[in-house]
Design goal:
about 400 residues, alpha+beta, 11 helices, elongated
């Protein structure tokens, strides 16, 4: 049985990442404690965030220092460092798949109808040797086309794109590309978490952390596309399940998710406007143009058929729209320098909605459009407590950096 463990470089990287994650989440929790150690936000948000960061760090270290892979004619055994080792015989082996970070092994246990699977980190030593070995042990027709494309990629990479390099130099080039995409993934995660967490300290920190992290999030697509362009096709936006090329898809997905969270936080404060659609479409178009300029020609071809090209464009537009709509809302509010128009309204009623999250509503009259007699609006917990029924609520109406009106409510 051949035994492999984590690469030394991967162990060093894991230690650095664990320290960075623990430090950042610990610092954020410290901000919560410094602001108000007895507040609900400190223990309902700050502590869980710190616990999450600490847990991620522990798992990262356990995977790096306790993982191992055993394989041979007797079967496969893999331990990820923090759970029970998986052991299967070659007779139980069904198929194999891979992405930028893991190899997925599918197997069928006697007596079970549905196949099961486990994943093996590509940071294991000599993982390419193991992958070639396990491919020779599987006979799954579903994977034939993917494996054929994978072999074509290898041939194109070795004998067309980088035929002037030795095999060791080619492997080193791919290894550096994977390290870059992994760094980008961690950077996107830390930037996104910092952006969301700093919302709670937007007026309490000595420096504009939210604005800095928001700018980083807004600039992330440009950075990712620039990396794709500089790599000359070595790093791609998205890849097939089986590919030798690393991608920035995961990093972009994290940033898009952060933008969607910001959208959910800001959407109730925006007055409906067609400008939202116009700006979202404009950002989508810009991202698509930059993507097509930076992406490798082979990636743009998709499956080589018209349907494949159309599906590639549609998939990109969906992900770009997730980013664009949140970016429009966030930029419009955070970078607004207009002087607000303050409108006094009477509070007719208030209501709390308890669902997956708690929402607070006020019914005010008249509404700021001058046409609606009364309107139910979503407000913050603070505004809900301050504005009593029968009292006056002041609506601060802003023009928005992109011309999209937004407001907030206060009692004075």
């Amino acid at each position: 049985m051949q035994k492999e463990v984590f690469k030394t470089k991967s162990k060093v990287t894991a230690v650095i990442v664990a320290i960075a994650i623990t430090g950042i989440f610990g610092w954020l929790f410290g901000l919560f404690m410094k602001e108000n150690p007895r507040s609900i936000e400190t223990w309902a948000i700050g502590l869980p965030l710190f616990t999450l960061g600490l847990t991620l760090s522990v798992f990262c270290l356990l995977e790096a220092f306790r993982s191992y892979l055993l394989y041979g004619e007797e079967g496969i055994e893999y331990c990820n460092g923090f759970s029970k080792p998986k052991r299967i015989s070659l007779d139980e082996l069904q198929s194999v798949n891979t992405n930028d970070y893991y190899i997925f092994v599918y197997y069928q246990k006697p007596g079970f109808i549905k196949p099961k699977s486990f994943r093996i980190s590509i940071s294991i030593n000599n993982i390419s040797v193991f992958y070639e070995w396990i491919l020779g042990k599987t006979e799954n027709p579903i994977l034939n086309k993917q494996i054929e494309n994978f072999n074509e990629e290898i041939e194109d990479f070795r004998y067309n794109r980088y035929d002037n390099l030795s095999e060791d130099e080619q492997e080193a080039l791919l290894r550096r590309a994977r390290i870059v995409t992994k760094i980008l993934w961690y950077a996107a995660l830390l930037t996104g978490v910092t952006c969301i967490a700093s919302l709670f300290f937007i007026n309490k920190l000595p420096f504009p952390l939210f604005r800095i992290s928001l700018i980083a999030c807004l600039a992330s697509p440009l950075v990712l596309f620039a990396v794709m362009k500089i790599s000359k096709g070595l790093i791609r936006f998205n890849t097939a399940n089986i590919s030798i090329y690393p991608s920035v898809f995961s990093a972009f997905s994290i940033i898009s998710s952060v933008m969607l969270i910001l959208l959910l936080l800001f959407v109730d404060e925006v007055i409906g406007s067609m400008k939202i659609l116009y700006w979202t479409a404009a950002v989508d178009a810009v991202l698509l143009i930059i993507y097509m300029f930076c992406a490798d020609s082979e990636e743009l071809k998709g499956s080589g058929k018209l349907l494949g090209k159309i599906s590639t464009v549609i998939a990109c537009l969906i992900l770009f729209t997730m980013f664009s709509v949140g970016a429009v809302f966030s930029f419009n509010k955070e970078f607004d320098t207009s002087t607000p128009e303050i409108i006094a309204t009477k509070v007719l009623d208030h209501k709390v909605s308890h669902g997956k999250s708690t929402s607070y509503y006020l019914t005010v009259s008249p509404w700021i459009d001058g046409k609606t007699e009364s309107k139910k609006i979503s407000v913050s917990n603070k505004a809900y407590k301050e504005c009593v029924v029968g009292g006056t609520a002041y609506i601060h109406l802003y023009n928005g950096a992109l011309g999209i009106n937004w407001y907030y409510v206060s009692r004075k």
